[in-house]
Design a protein that fits this description.
This protein is 26% helix and 20% strand. It has seven helices and nine strands. The protein starts with 16 loop residues before the first strand and ends in a 10-residue tail after the last helix. α4 packs across α5.
């Protein structure tokens, strides 16, 4: 039988996992730099490095989706056998290079020195999985089939679970705007495939939606679900439905904005700035 523990007296470490969802330019990556503690980033988005800036608490490795010049850019149609042919169809290797790196670092306990592992972004990470799945299926450059979707969904969810077991985990994800065909209502949904829109967010203890408020010129996070962000949730008490997480980028980022809010439950000491 497993050991029975009491929640009030247990000394087991509590891991926190955060998903930051939002549109392009909503401040997801920049907000992530405010998290307290040493951070390791896997960057899959070509624009992520610029958003991290000169943050001293962040180390990173880039696995950018394979260059379009190396993939099949020939025109394809839904009609079988109809489409342009290209002379060269290179092998996409971004995913297998990441998988090798992640596996070796996990085996060597490299991540033990970090308080946070951050994936930026889930959207681009899914792209490199799709490239590999489509290549192995002999359909690179063609329209995905159901088998491709299933393989991508299962692998992406498995990778998220593996990363979330190592230490505190954060992942950014893009949101797309949809229109309800029956009622005509506008709502938002995470850019993930199929049921992963529900299953992957369930792996995270905190889900915040980031947004730039053009009126106030502030970056904010939503802490309560809305029509545009129905998956938002958190167990942190006494938060306003919308919290200001704007940072002064002329100062150390750690402990500002979202980092200040998350510090209520992580109890991690700030290495760059004081947290009140």
């Amino acid at each position: 039988m497993h050991e029975l523990k009491n929640a009030a007296t247990s000394t087991d470490r509590i891991r926190h996992s955060i998903m930051l969802v939002g549109g392009i330019g909503a401040g997801k990556t920049t907000t992530g730099t405010s998290l307290i503690g040493k951070k390791f980033w896997y960057l899959f988005d070509p624009n992520a490095r610029a958003a991290i800036g000169l943050d001293k608490s962040s180390d990173y490795i880039e696995f950018i989706p394979d260059s379009p010049d190396e993939l099949d850019l020939g025109v394809k149609t839904l009609k079988a056998g109809v489409g342009d042919k290209v002379a060269v169809k290179a092998e996409p290797r971004a995913y297998i290079e990441w998988e090798k790196d992640f596996t070796e670092r996990r085996r060597e306990k490299f991540f033990d020195q970090y308080q946070w592992i951050i994936f930026d972004s889930a959207t681009a990470f899914q792209d490199i999985i799709y490239d590999r799945v489509m290549f192995l299926g002999g359909r690179l450059g063609k329209h995905p089939e159901q088998a491709d979707h299933t393989a991508q969904m299962n692998l992406f969810r498995q990778d998220m679970r593996a990363a979330a077991t190592l230490t505190n985990f954060c992942c950014t994800a893009h949101v797309e705007t949809e229109k309800d065909g029956l009622e005509g209502r506008i709502y938002g949904r995470i850019l993930m495939t199929g049921k992963n829109r529900l299953r992957v967010p369930s792996l995270f203890s905190h889900i915040f939606a980031t947004e730039y408020d053009a009126e106030t010129k502030k970056y904010v996070i939503y802490t309560k679900p809305t029509r545009m962000h129905p998956v938002v949730r958190t167990s942190i008490p006494n938060l306003q439905p919308i919290e200001d997480v704007t940072m002064d980028l002329n100062k150390p980022r750690e402990g500002q904005g979202l980092g200040r809010i998350i510090s209520r439950v992580t109890n991690l000491p700030a290495t760059s700035v004081g947290v009140k």
